Amino acid sequence: MKKSVFFLSVLLSVAINAQKQEKDPEISEYVKLVSKDSLKANIEKFVSFGTRHTMSSTTDQEKGIGAARSWVLSKFRNYSKNSGGRMEFYLQNEDLQPDGKRINKVTNLGNAIALLKGTDPSDKRIVIISGHLDSRVSEVMNSTDYAPGANDDGSGVAAVIESARVLSKSKFPMSILFVAVSGEEQGLLGAKMLADKAKKENWEIEAVLNNDMIGNNSFDAPKNDGVPKLRVFSEGLSAFETEKSAAKIRNFGLENDGNARQLARYVKEIGEKYVKNIDIKLIYRNDRFLRGGDHTPFVNHGFTAVRLTDYYENYDHQHQDIRTENNKKYGDLIEFMDFDYLKTNTAVNVAVLANLAKSTPQPLNVLMDVKELSNSTKLSWEKPNSGKVKGYQVLIRETSSPVWTERIFTTEASITIPLSKDNYLFAVESISTSGNQSLPVIPKVSR
Ligand SMILES: [Zn+2]
Fold this sequence. Notes:
By secondary structure, the chain is α/β, with parallel strands linked by helices. It is 31% helix and 24% strand. It folds into two domains: 2-23 and 360-446, Sandwich (Immunoglobulin-like), CATH 2.60.40; 34-358, Aminopeptidase (3-Layer(aba) Sandwich).
């Protein structure tokens, strides 16, 4: 008994140290390539379109949502030239009829999309990064007044475009979809159009990173010793939990281990590993009160999706007419942006996208053997159905811990750990030959 505990502590310290030290140099390089100047230039361009309201002009060459989405596609066109023919870009669009809600005339709804195709044809997984291109003022139906939408959500789309620029030359087994949706402010319409298509065509979406307002954190620094914080919102459990799996979740204490929550932990772990000076906060709810987000149409279809957002919101600079009242400026103007913060948050996205895209699929048939009473834990799994693995990483945390705290690497497909399954939570990740981890899998109980 003593011997096994000693063995474990040595094993864990080796594993933890290895984890802390080993960075993928390719990902560190991508993180360095993220440019504040590029992000700023993108947002300067967005605000120049006057308004990007969903019902604004789609035919004017310089103003309105049509000109904005054409410009996003022109950026994707430029990056596709570096991709060796692997980046495609297109406008997903359809005409909406007045709906008695937030659409009051026939409106061409359009999502500007780039797909960086994976190099492994047997790997169908896709990771999505999204932001919303449309903007608004105080009145949600006003499609003509100046609505710069610098932070909401110029920041998210700038991150999408910058990620496409940085990653366009890369060769990853998994595909990445870069998306600037429209219709967010009119009821998440563009995200729904894309999520519906993904559902209908059975896309294998590994993860969705929805970025909505990630470049204005002006209230943060004084309260946090200058270390900026980024929120990741994730739902605890999918709406698709059946009665039977809900019973298992209750019995086994897995209320905090749904797919979106696993993705949120992964964003925190990988983001903080590669990007300096960011404190990623896990928020245990799908979104904020009274507000929506483009990850939700994906979540509603059972896909794994989270929202990345400023830690503090400045309500004077979102959904506001541009005006000055009592010497106070209102409106989502570029002057209130924090481009260092936006650069940091974009780098978090780039690190997570690249790490996921370089991973192999998750291990299959991950089981925890509970056939007998014991103070140890037996886990087993099978190799993923595509890609080459270097091995597997077993993640361990106390049941009350928000994040995984211990890691054990093994090349075997089973392990016995001298820790009681009653006292800890476990998960298993595939590690690709390039050293990148998949999203973790919570074991099923095998009796
Ligand atoms: Zn928004």
